Amino acid sequence: MTKGIKEKKKKSLTRELAEIVITAFLLAFVIKVFVFELYKIPSGSMIPTLLVGDRIVVVKYVFGPRLPFVNLRLPGLREPKIGEIVVFKSPDDPKKSFIKRFVATGGDTVEIKNGKLLVNGTAVEDPPAFRRVYYYNRGDYGLEGKPVTVPKDCYFVLGDNSASSKDSRYWGFVPRSYLIGKAVLVILPFDRMQLINGK
Known about the structure:
Layout: H1 2-35, E1 36-40, E2 55-59, E3 66-67, E4 72-73, E5 85-89, E6 97-105, E7 109-113, E8 116-119, E9 122-123, H2 129-132, E10 148-149, E11 154-158, H3 168-171, E12 174-175, E13 179-188, E14 194-195
Antiparallel strand pairs: 1-2, 2-13, 3-4, 5-6, 5-13, 6-11, 7-8, 7-10, 8-9, 11-12, 13-14
């Protein structure tokens, strides 16, 4: 009788532990897919805003999270705003993720002239990061005197470290479906912990 009770308790404990592990796994999966994910900055293309090795929090629900295993995304709260820092799948290699500053959306005309970024013929100066960066005329989509128009459902993005950034100047436009989320916080290293507010 006592042995049977012990075995029953042991099975009950094993089942409880399994339920806790499965629940934790599912919760982590839901958070990663729909809410936020951590990313590590692999290059210096966003210096001085983000440094190599920074670990950042990227919020996914703002622009609409992508559903895993299918080519669908849920509706987002809004579209990206000019100056925000966004993470997206690389147009060259969708297995890789890039991080750049959002510059323009479908229908906008983009040009780099005398180191300044012009969107629809007007120099962009807000947020202040646009005033700090000297944009170089490089790549097929960044030539001076040759404005480019962003196609529908696509975005144009640039790195803050214009001299060392492979961005829309080189490979063109980011399809809306490639957008992953908005960078909101540097979480590591601790001495660099700060909000990423597009400034």
